Hints:
Elements: E1 27-28, E2 34-41, H1 43-52, E3 67-69, H2 73-80, E4 91-98, H3 99-107, E5 109-111, E6 138-146, E7 152-162, H4 164-174, E8 175-180, H5 182-194, H6 200-205, E9 213-214, H7 219-224
Parallel strand pairs: 5-6
Antiparallel strand pairs: 1-9, 2-4, 3-7, 4-8, 6-7
Amino acid sequence: MAAPDPNQGEMAADVGAKANPKQRQIRAHYDEKTITVYQAYNSEIASAAVDQQKLCASPQFRLTRMTWIKPSWCWMMYRAGYSYKDKNQERILALKMKHENFIALLEKAMLTTEPRKGIAPGDTSGDSKPAGEKSSVVKVQWDPERTPRLEKLGYRSIQIGVPSLLAATWADEWIISIEDVTEKARALERELRENPGVADEELLRRGLLPPEREFLLPLEVQKAIRVE
């Protein structure tokens, strides 16, 4: 089941292109069949994933923890500090999923208002359960969206926590392509540092921002995760 596309044949002119975006909506880079989400990893996990086109190619990739993914490029930049934040987030990967699998993930989702104590929202290592106990619930958090300069905006961006019981299926079957976009993130940071007055439209034109637009979900899923 593919999500309806309200902008058939068009791409948004800017990240969060609407003048008055909804408080909670999924804004993403997608085409007729796939949607892109992002996550940051250490170099060993990322290199193996890109080389073999399998996220779990490295033994360092842990299927026992919740993994948080983000469809917002700017929120990924904020979370990973353009890939400079720490060694566990030094490589940023763009992960493509089919629409139907992305929607299937959210059909299993439960809204959460805050992360577990000691775990930052969207932590690369994510949520974990005691030994022997696995989670089957997909988690959704809505955090303030960010600009390319990492400034907080007045509306929200979704983060999706893939639980341990779904991790193998997600990593092995639902991710259909993996691209290393670390250099793109660093080029964005460098351009903003060297040319602080550059317009978002120019960043988009140069490919430093992906075109993102609203991705629609079935009504029952929208209600469950409080899309507005």
